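Example S7 (structure tokens).
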């Protein structure tokens, strides 16, 4: 994911020569909503890599899920992504917030796992 981010930032840098290369779309997805979409895509991609057969067996279509959940279409998503990519500082901000959110969630799950482990140890000690 970091490589994709660097590639997009590089491409965005090419477009940032002082003039607006990509016009702001009429139906631009807000930054916060874009972060939510990218977060869900990251979770889906992680799930696909750890259990691809489960999603395949369920006929789960990740992008259809995203479009329905956020009430956007593919054109709106692509044009919004392209627009933000043409503004490297905006795009970097989006991905930094996304990275922070993923890190926070990971830490939350680690702590949750530690609490469950501690609870199991307490139960075993009581027996």
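Recovered sequence:
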């Amino acid at each position: 994911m970091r490589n994709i981010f660097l590639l997009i930032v590089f491409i965005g840098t090419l477009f940032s020569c002082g003039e607006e290369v990509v016009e702001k779309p009429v139906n631009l997805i807000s930054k916060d909503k874009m972060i939510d979409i990218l977060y869900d895509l990251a979770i889906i991609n992680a799930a696909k890599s750890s259990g691809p057969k489960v999603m395949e067996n369920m006929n789960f279509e990740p992008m259809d899920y995203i479009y329905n959940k956020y009430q956007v279409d593919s054109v709106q998503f692509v044009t919004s992504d392209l627009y933000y990519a043409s503004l490297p500082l905006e795009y970097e901000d989006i991905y930094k917030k996304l990275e922070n959110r993923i890190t926070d969630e990971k830490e939350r799950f680690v702590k949750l796992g530690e609490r469950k482990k501690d609870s199991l140890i307490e139960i075993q000690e009581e027996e």
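Notes on this example. Residues 2-126 form one domain.
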